[in-house]
Design a protein that fits this description.
DUF6429 family protein; mainly alpha; about 45 residues; elongated; DUF6429
């Protein structure tokens, strides 16, 4: 089975958004590979 990293990244980004608090902080205990891909895409 092929893993769609784009869908994983979208889900992680959505979860980051849903956990926003204190003026823009988010819970960041997500897969480091996904977080690195999001950072490289400029979604930080």
């Amino acid at each position: 089975m092929e893993i769609d990293e784009e869908k994983i990244d979208e889900a992680v980004l959505a979860l980051l958004y849903l956990t926003l608090h204190d003026g823009g902080r988010a819970w960041k205990s997500f897969d480091w590979d996904a977080m690195n891909r999001l950072h490289e895409k400029g979604s930080h």
